[in-house]
Amino acid sequence: MKPGKRQPKLWKNLPFDSFRKGQYFTGVMRVPVFPLGVVLLPRMPLPLHIFEERYQLMINRCLEEAHPFGVLFHTGSSILKIGCLAQIESVINRYNDGGMDLLAAGTERFSVSRFHDDKPYLEAEVAIFHDEPPEPRNEAEEISAAQRAIHHLEQFARAVGYDIDRTILNNLDHEELSFLLATTDIFSTEEKQRLLESRSTLERMEEASRALQTSCQRRLMEHRIRKILNKTDTEDLTNLFN
C-alpha cells in the first residue's frame, strides 16, 4: 500500500462534501488499521494505491461491511497510538492482481488501547474522542479566531492560485474549520500529528491561522523578489526592503 499522488494544497477538485461531519461512533470498537507514513486528519481526503495482498483483504472487508479503517502514523520505528478513522468514498480502479486505487476521507479521531495481530493485517481496539467544548468565556474568542482564520486561508489560497468559497467556510463548525486549516501542506507530518492530537479547537485554529499568515507573507515576498529580479534595473533591489 502507498498513498496516491500528492493532492493540491486545498484539494481544489474535491467537493467540500468530503469535509462533512462523519458518522459519530461511541465506546470502544475494533478496527483494521493502516500504519502509514502520513497523518490523516478529519475531513481530509486520502488517495491510496493498494497492492499488498493483506491490505487487499482488509479493504475488501471494509467495502463489504461498509466499515471504516484506522490510519496511524508510522514514524519508521514505531506506530503512534492516536489516529483517524477513514471511510472509503470510492474505488477508482481495480487491477487483475487484486490491487486497487481508492479515495478515502478522514472522519473521527481515535486513541488505541490495544493492538491485535491475529489476522493478516493489524487491528486495534480504539476509542473515539473529540475536542473539549469551549468554556463560555472563550466562545467569543473562538468566533473571532475563526474569522481571522478564514481571512488568512483566503489570502493563502489567492497566493497559491486557488479560489475558495467563503460561504462554505462560514458554514463549517469551528472544529471542522480548524482541521481544514491543518490539512494544508505548510505543516510537516509531525506538526499535523500534534494538531490531530490536540483537544482544543481554539489552539488548533490559532496555530494553523498563524502558520497560514506566515506562509502567505513568505510567498508574497518571494513573488516580489522574482518580480524585482526580472527587471533590468538592479537598483530596484533596494525596493525589496522598503
UniProtKB/TrEMBL annotation:
Domain annotation Lon N-terminal: ranges: 28-216
Positions in coiled-coil regions: none
Top-rank taxon, per record: Bacteria
Protein name, as recorded: Lon N-terminal domain-containing protein
Organism: Alkalispirochaeta americana
